[in-house]
Amino acid sequence: MDHPVLKQARKCAEQIAKCEEIIRFRVAEEQVNQSDSVQQLIVQIKKKQKELVHAKHYHKHEHLKQIEQNLVDMNERLDRLPIVMEYQQSQVAANDLIQMIQQIIGDTVSQKIEVEVGNPVESGCGSGGSCGCS
């Protein structure tokens, strides 16, 4: 049996999935995943990262600097692609929306629950049980 609050949470999740920010993110994510140029660059970056690990392991310091610079250049090239920029911007917007929703839920629930404030327990569990704290 489903708790009524869980049913409402599912309805809320469905509404969130229909928000412009979430739709925009999903579209951008799909475009990035289907872009051959983006995927090829990601594969190249992963290969270069493996080279970096190998160079570190075998203490190839000069080669290491060159690989690190290659990685910086490749990541900058990836980040400058319009499709990737759109993906990153839409991801930030979607995350902001979700964080605001979490904050609203947290604040609303906190206002409804009385929380004892002050006199924090210095040590122990605070129950005065077998550990002897109070």
UniProtKB/TrEMBL annotation:
It holds the Pfam family Com_YlbF. Transmembrane segments: none annotated. This is YlbF family regulator. It comes from Polycladospora coralii. The lineage of its organism: Bacteria, Bacillati, Bacillota, Bacilli, Bacillales.
